[in-house]
Specification:
This protein is mainly alpha-helical and 96 residues long. The protein is 62% helix and 8% strand. The chain is built from five helices and two strands, in the order αααααββ. Strands 1-2 form a two-stranded antiparallel sheet. α3 packs across α4. The protein is globular, with a radius of gyration of 17 Å.
Length: 96
């Protein structure tokens, strides 16, 4: 059974992106809109099942986009993506 609050939130979120297509395109680029919406729905429902806040955080939305885009990368491109945090004997170095 689906939660009404989840459905209301997702409807509002999807309406925002439908009414602001430039914001959607700057976020997802050439990814499929329907697939993006489905992934957001899955993440929101997972939050609900885990007892977390149903409203997706900025980081959760970014994680959905990154997960979708990483499928299109070649192994060489994935290796080229370097971690932002390096562990050294002097402590963690964050490249930001």
């Amino acid at each position: 059974m689906k939660n009404v609050d989840v459905e209301i939130y997702l409807t509002q979120l999807f309406n925002f992106f439908e009414n602001n297509p430039n914001d959607l395109m700057s976020l997802i680029g050439e990814l499929q809109k329907d697939e993006f919406f489905n992934k957001l729905r899955e993440r929101c429902e997972k939050n609900f099942e885990e007892g977390k806040e149903i409203v997706l955080t900025r980081q959760q939305i970014i994680d959905v986009v990154v997960d979708m885009k990483i499928k299109d990368l070649t192994p060489q491109e994935i290796k080229a993506i370097k971690p932002a945090v390096y562990k050294t004997k002097f402590g963690d170095i964050i490249l930001n």
